[in-house]
Amino acid sequence: MASTAAELARKKAREVDGAGSQANAVPFNQQNFEQLRRECLQTGSLFCDPTFPANWDSLGYNQLGRYSSKTIGVEWKRPTELWSDPQFIVDGAKRTDICQGVLGDCWLLAAVASLTLDPQILSRVVPPGQSFTSQYAGIFHFQLWQYGEWVDVVVDDRLPTRDGKLLFVHSAEGGEFWSALLEKAYAKVNSSYEALTGGSSIEGFEDFTGGIAESYNLKEAPPFLFNLTRKALKLGSLLGCSIDISSSYETEAITALKLVKGHAYSITAAEQVHHFGSPVELLRIRNPWGQVEWTGAWSDDSKEWDGVQPEEKRKLDHSADDGEFWMSYTDFLRQFSRLDICNLTPDTLTSDEVGHWNYAEFEGVWRVGSTAGGCRNYPATFCSNPQFFIRLEDVDDDPHDGEDGCTVLIGLMQKDTRRERRFGRDLNTIGFAIYQVPDEYKGRSNVHLGPDVLLRTESVARSQTFINLREVCGRFKLPPGEYAIVPSTFQPHRKGSFVLRVFTEKEARSSPMEEDANADIQEPDVGENDVDPHFKHLFVQISGNDSEISAFELQQILDKVVAQRSDLKTDGFSLQTCRNIISLLDMDGNAKLGLVEFHTLWTKIQRYLEIFKSHDSDGSGTMSSHEMRAALAEAGFQVNSAVIQEIVRRFADTSYAIDFDCFIGCLIRLELLFKMFRTLDKKNQGKIELDMQQVKKFRPVLV
Q1: What domains can you pick out in the chain, each with its CATH number?
Q2: Radius of gyration (C-alpha) of the chain in whole angstroms
């Protein structure tokens, strides 16, 4: 259980010092930018990053691998070797600083281009004050959001080149390098440049803001999408739109009405005007290029503006900045293909002019054999999935769809998906379901809902589909109440780590649904006179001349008894299990079991046998590890998922089955641990501290 303790300690430390928050980014790979730069300046050397070296491994593993034709002639060079006067940023970051190279990461570059439209967010991702002159040491740093925490990523400025030119992203004029170095930092956190091939711009949106992104197909736009867009802008969300292309030849092709295909636009306003007295819904859209603008209805000089009152025109500033234009919402639906909304966390927004979402974030694990239960199609394992509680109390103000209720955005993101590509690991197919918490459990998050709830009632909402994307996101309108979110892979037994994020318009309480660890073990008060004469006779036969049973004798007795039963599978009781049994039941401290103690053990084993058989659903003589939570509860033990995971790791076989001797060993060990804890928790505080002597004493049970 040491790994679990270490993880809990790490999480506690993060809660105390705020590590991983926007204000306190975690040094990626434990590399501190200021310290490394200072060391380089003191020694007069240029930084060379040992964790992302200038070699084939950092380029890729297949198409950009060591023996690929695409990497022939590649040399790593610093900007000072490529340009006589290299610059980090010149006159602010611009869209023309982002020209795609031979890497298929246009999705990422579209997100970077959108960054240039928001100087505040850009300055956090690309910290200011970096240059090739003042305190130059060949080292730069960037801040990215990665699966629930902000990380500060340092890179050296050695960049892949061929024939003296940058291989990947570059600026139009060639001498500006912030975008190339940002791309390198993003490649570093994902293990290689090749890992960036293919993706969606909303992934970049999220990693640059920490927000949660929704995507809408405008050919199937919901009827309330304009109102949703207007409300999103009031909440400070970033909105992007684009026109799909049918082939690479259409990339950045310009239509007859001067819209650019395959190009990232941003939406900056949503308003309603009166055209000759009739209401018209308008969107203000910005092209990062700055020159090419929509020339259709409601463009800068179109005749439609003649039908709008002067005061309304002034209010809208209808002749917008260069590259910015108005368009009717109906034309928008006809001309554009996709709308992406990136909803920002409260700590991202510093302006008081916009509203703020309420936000909660949780980490979780699907572990084979314990918490990787699959979807509801697999009733035998579904209930073992992680669960999360949310209480919604207040309905939305000014609902965008005109219906009362509580808006909830839920995003389920699987972790490290790009880093694991080089190992041939595919994305899991993921989704989630939302269940109403029954009345008997209301007000409690220290429960884990079982089959009596999850298999006998329908979910009140669910993700639109199970899909193999990095993130599945859904927007829901629910009545006030208490709900359980159950995230899962589609099939059971698929391992993975995930982050679950919950955004609500009003305050909401949310937390993992986990039982408090506890034990309620009923021990019969048995004296020697209560022991059946037949049992006494049996005990005399098996205990030998000293009328007591040692650990070695107990091992032989238990193995012999179980071997006679064809309905139980066992590898035999371990000597350590037998020693634990004696430690638990030995009342006089002689490391052996007397008559009454052995009778107590026998009664206990009989009861545990009944529980084991009731959970051996297929009559195989073993029990599925997914049954352990329910079996332990029946035996009087209430444990959380972290403990279940450790139990499965320690006691299940390679097919995640638990045989009878392991089941008994687990229960005895748990009982012994609870007994030790309660003995040491003299003040009943729910926590104990062990000194080194106590750790050594209890190590056989703890480890």
Answers
A1: 22-209 (no CATH), 212-348 (3.90.70.10), 359-417+428-514 (2.60.120.380), 528-702 (1.10.238.10)
A2: 32
User: For residue 260, what is the DSSP state?
Assistant: B
In the predicted model, what is the mean pLDDT of residues 307-323? 77
Residues 471-480 pLDDT 10s: 999 999 999 9
| DSSP codes of every residue in 185-254 | HHHHHTTSSGGGSS--HHHHHHHHH--EEEEEEGGG--TTHHHHHHHHHHTT-EEEEE---SSGGGTTPB
What lies within 8 Å, CB to CB, of 313 at 6+ separation is 305
Judged by DSSP in three states, 442 sits in: coil
Could you tell me where the beta strands, DSSP code E, fall in 302-392? 324-328, 338-343, 358-366, 388-392
Structure tokens at 596: 């009454």
**Residue 583: strand, helix, or coil:** helix
Helices 660-680 + 692-702 axis angle, to 10:
160
Q: Is 99 among the residues known to form the active site?
A: no
Calpha distance 84→59 (Å, rounded): 26
The C-alpha atoms of residue 403 and residue 398 are separated, in whole angstroms, by 9
**Residue type for position 235:** L
Q: Average pLDDT for residues 252-281, to the nearest whole number?
A: 89
The amino acid occupying position 691 is D
Of 56-70, 146-160, 234-248, which gets the smallest average pLDDT?
234-248
Q: Give 3-state DSSP helix, strand, coil % of the chain, rounded to 5.
A: 35, 20, 45
Mean pLDDT of the chain: 88
For range 321-342, the mean pLDDT: 90
Pairing of strands 461-462, 637-638: unpaired
List 40, 106, 342, 383, catalytic entry: 106
Q: What is the mean pLDDT of residues 666-672?
A: 91
For residue 281, which of 294, 265, 297 has the smallest C-alpha distance?
A: 297
* Closest alpha carbon to 391 in 499, 473, 474, 504: 504
Respond yes or no: is residue 448 known to be catalytic.
no
Q: Phi/psi zone of residue 402: left (φ > 0), alpha (ψ -120 to 50 degrees), beta? A: left
Collapsing DSSP to helix, strand or coil, 16 comes out as helix
Per cent of the chain over pLDDT 90 is 57
Share of the chain above pLDDT 70, in %: 91
> How many Å apart are CA 67 and CA 73, to the nearest integer?
11
Active site residue 318: no
Question: Would you say residue 2 has pLDDT above 50?
Answer: no
| CA distance linking residue 519 with residue 541, whole number of Å | 35
CA distance 684 to 686: 6
Rounded to whole angstroms, what are the CA distances from 17 to 13, 21, 27, 635? 6, 9, 14, 40
- pLDDT in the model for residue 682: 75
For the chain, the distance separating the N- and C-terminal CA atoms, rounded to the nearest angstrom, is 6
- The whole-number pLDDT of residue 290 equals 64
Give the single-character DSSP code of 622.
S
Angle at 137 between CA 133 and CA 142, to 5 degrees: 90
Strand stretches in 52-200, DSSP E: 75-77, 139-146, 149-156, 159-162, 165-166
CB 513 within 8 Å of CB 444: no
The span from the CA of 21 to the CA of 263, in Å, is 32
CA dist., res. 594 & res. 25, Å (int): 60
Active-site option among 40, 170, 190, 263: 263
CA nearest neighbour of 647 among 424, 630, 125, 80: 630
Q: Please report which helix (H) or strand (E) contains residue 501, including its range.
A: strand 496-504
Mean pLDDT lowest among 82-96, 172-186, 210-224, 409-423: 82-96
Confidence of residue 95 (pLDDT cuts 50, 70, 90): low
Residue 259's closest CA among 215, 296, 227, 229?
296
Q: Identify the active-site residue in 287, 385, 428, 580.
A: 287
